[in-house]
Amino acid sequence: xxxxxxNPDRQLAADIRAGSITFAGNKRxxxxxxxxxxQGKRMKRENRIFFQSIDxxxxxxxxxxxxxxNVAYHKWKMDLFNNNIDETRNLLPQDGTVNYYGNILSPKxxxxxxxxxxxxxxxxxxxxxxxxxxxxxxxxxxxYADMPYxxxxxxxxKRAVVWTAExxxxxxxxxxxxxxxxxxxxxxxxxxxxxxxxxxxxxxKDLMKDGxxxxxxxxxxxxxxxxxxxTKETISLMxxxxxxxxxKDTTQTHWLHRLPPTTxxxxxxxxxxxxMMLR
Length: 279
Ligand SMILES: O=C(O)CCC(=O)C(=O)O
Ligand SMILES: [Mn+2]
Fold this sequence. Notes:
The strands form 4 sheets. Strands 6, 7, 8, 11, 12, 14, 17 and 19 form an 8-stranded mixed beta sheet that branches. Helix content is 22%, strand content 36%. By secondary structure, it is an alpha+beta fold. It has helices at residues 9-18, 54-59, 70-81, 107-120, 165-178, 251-254; strands at residues 2-3, 23-26, 31-33, 48-51, 63-64, 97-103, 124-130, 133-145, 150-153, 156-159, 161-162, 184-190, 197-200, 213-219, 222-228, 234-239, 243-248, 255-259, 269-275. Bound molecules: 2-oxoglutaric acid and manganese (II) ion. Residues 186, 188, 197, 202, 215, 224, 257, 259, 271, 273 line the site of 2-oxoglutaric acid. Residues 181-278 form the Fe2OG dioxygenase domain. InterPro entries: Ada-like_dom_sf, Ada_DNA_repair_Zn-bd, AlkB-like, AlkB-like_sf, ALKBH3, Oxoglu/Fe-dep_dioxygenase_dom. One of its GO terms (biological process) is DNA alkylation repair. Its cofactor is Fe(2+).
């Protein structure tokens, strides 16, 4: 870090031209950027600080200007939300693989997709047949796919609706992040914390065995838990707005998962599980 006042203007200009100092920070606003940014003009000369690199500026606690440092700004924002998240770490101790990717959408994009999904998906109560009795769930669902596939779970057969443009965007983001391919998506809408999903595994015969299931969460942050079918060991984590979790390998064979109800959550949550159906 080099303070502006310590160096004469001519020296500064020469240093910038030589590339030995690059970015200007505003001491008062804790922002840094290029000197040419229109916002930069608001920096008082006596508040200016120069850095040798983006990393140095960020390590000093400055944030990139959203105007002239757009790419660095978006990276900084995502890193901030995903502080220390290792996407390759397996959350399960054995018998399966679960990876947590943290927030994969900026807060603004996550808000936009949540608003779209709440307003535009033809949500319907889910149906289940348990001991021959017909039930409707409080939570609502929708199922999308490449083709109007039929899909059976909880002893009820449903027919998929073909992707909307927005769901295809989300599918592309999730595929790019995970390196997996998906041909369908089950959407769940939990109106508030009273609604959840009981212990189960996604082991239906229509699903590709040991295929990846990518779970994207939007809206209210909720707890999500895994329980080993034999050892009963449980692992849980919070799933915030815009976050992605992937279950793969033998996870569905050996582990159950659930979304426990909670009295403290008053806002809706939408969850999208991208899946690979056998066709
Ligand atoms: O809402 C969730 O996070 C999980 C949903 C789920 O497990 C399912 O749809 O099978
Ligand atoms: Mn599930």
